Amino acid sequence: VQLQAYGGGLVQAGGSLRLSCAQCGSISSITATTWYRQAPGKERDMVAAITSGGSTNYADSVKGRFTISRDNAKNTVYLQMNSLKPEDTAVYYCAADRYYKDYAYNDVVEKVWGQGTEVTVSS
What we know:
Structural class: mainly beta
Distance between the termini: 37 Å
Shape: elongated
Number of strands: 11
């Protein structure tokens, strides 16, 4: 599984951006895709997640403003970000949970990371 995140940029407060996470490889092994972000000097935090069944989860700080979705035909997961605030400024990463069985038939979930895309929200 390989991931490529893109769509970041510079936007004014109150504006919108849509991030994309293009996925290739063994897509059927992906059980969930999560967007994370890391602001300068801070830890990487979960922003939003979507499971293969379509269930979604959001960080409290983005609920009502961000929407995670996926297009199975395009093998892409999106993060629509509306009403952006300066505190949303960060490098955004997508990550996929890849499920497989190892040589001993144990269940393994591996997190695969894409490269980051930078989002800057000016006040």
